[in-house]
Task: inverse folding
């Protein structure tokens, strides 16, 4: 059996690591389909539905696939480091200037840029619990503290409680709107009051990864706050509604001064040529987005009706996933669901060991999940 070379050469690597790095726990992504097949010994042609990472199961816009094919012949060249065309496309789309955008290898990378550019050791950020785990882990990676503020009973950001946590070391407050894993949003009035009342030097990071799915009229429009000059950055991604998760492309949208500061920590050529081409093409395909929204809205209704019928509590969602309480140990439900060919996420990393987060899929995928859940719940 071959051994990894590092095991032979340096068994004491931890003594080299910076202490705050050795304490980090690696991010655990949604289980890939290939891994499930390997683990369960399933044949290649066994259909598995991955409803674990909030990808858009409709797939990318046809124009994006075409753009990737066209760009493929030129990948011997380094990509455009400035993302000139993509920034211009985004500027047209949002009616802003290219200088208002920074492009990242996923919006995850922008989160790291923020930490790297703005945080000194012992600075603090504030986030919610449960929320997107990368805010906390990126802050810890930077050697800083993340204060976690529990959500309200109905799973929404508790903005007054978050405000109370502000100290003289607070640099940023992260709000995922809609929130992951709950799918909930803050309402416009409460966000208004919040942003107007916090010290103006604190940067509000409004993560709008699931923005395209929001149906509620009363959710704050992040762009208005950028236009009005608040200290806010919006995070957007092409991984979700635009269905380009495999390409890794996201962006930050903010005042040009902040964007310029973030550019200081961006590595060269951080966004590959295929991603830039596909993102531009996706932005131009409004129809694919409409189909995506319609499928999601119908899927939501289906989930609500079925879960109500089964008496399973859930959080009404403004995103493309639903957070529900199976009432059973979620890790066991997860394993059972795998045997039914469905991959979901469990709530235990969020301290909610009976909850599941399930991506809303095609009608067939949703039915397959509900049928499997029904069998598991009824048998328990
Ligand atoms: C709230 C939230 N923000 C950001 C991201 C990261 O997205 P990206 O694929 O652009 O890195 C995710 C991904 O799941 C997310 O849920």
Result:
């Amino acid at each position: 059996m071959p051994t990894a070379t590092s095991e032979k050469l340096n068994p004491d690597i931890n003594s080299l690591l910076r202490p705050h790095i050795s304490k980090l726990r690696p991010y655990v992504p949604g289980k890939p389909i290939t891994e499930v097949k390997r683990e369960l010994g399933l044949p290649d042609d066994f259909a598995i539905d991955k409803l674990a990472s909030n990808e858009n199961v409709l797939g990318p816009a046809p124009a994006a696939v075409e753009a990737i094919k066209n760009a493929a012949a030129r990948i011997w060249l380094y990509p455009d480091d400035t993302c000139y065309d993509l920034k211009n496309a985004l500027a047209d789309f949002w009616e802003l200037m290219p200088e208002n955008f920074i492009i990242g290898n996923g919006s995850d990378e922008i989160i790291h840029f923020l930490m790297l550019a703005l945080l000194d050791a012992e600075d603090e950020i504030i986030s919610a619990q449960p929320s997107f785990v990368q805010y906390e882990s990126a802050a810890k990676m930077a050697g800083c503290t993340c204060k976690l503020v529990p959500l309200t009973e109905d799973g929404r950001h508790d903005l007054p409680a978050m405000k109370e946590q502000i100290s003289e070391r607070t640099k940023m407050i992260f709000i995922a709107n809609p929130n992951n894993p709950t799918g909930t949003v803050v309402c416009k009035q409460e966000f208004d009051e919040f942003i107007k009342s916090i010290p103006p030097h604190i940067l509000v990071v409004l993560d709008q990864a699931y923005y395209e799915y929001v149906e509620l009229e009363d959710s704050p429009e992040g762009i208005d706050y950028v236009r009005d000059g608040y200290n806010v950055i919006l995070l957007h991604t092409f991984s979700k509604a635009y269905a380009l998760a495999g390409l890794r492309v996201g962006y930050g949208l903010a005042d040009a001064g902040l964007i310029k500061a973030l550019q200081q920590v961006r590595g060269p050529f951080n966004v590959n040529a295929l991603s830039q081409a596909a993102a531009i093409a996706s932005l131009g395909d409004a129809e694919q987005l409409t189909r995506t929204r319609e499928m999601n809205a119908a899927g939501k209704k289906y989930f609500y009706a079925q879960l109500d019928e089964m008496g399973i509590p859930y959080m009404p969602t403004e995103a493309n996933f639903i957070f529900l309480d199976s009432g059973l140990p979620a890790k066991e439900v997860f394993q059972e669901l795998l045997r039914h060919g469905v991959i979901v996420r469990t709530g235990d990393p969020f301290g909610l060991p009976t909850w599941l987060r399930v991506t809303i899929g095609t009608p067939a995928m949703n039915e397959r999940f509900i049928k499997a859940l029904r069998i598991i719940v009824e048998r328990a």
The two ends are 42 Å apart (CA to CA).
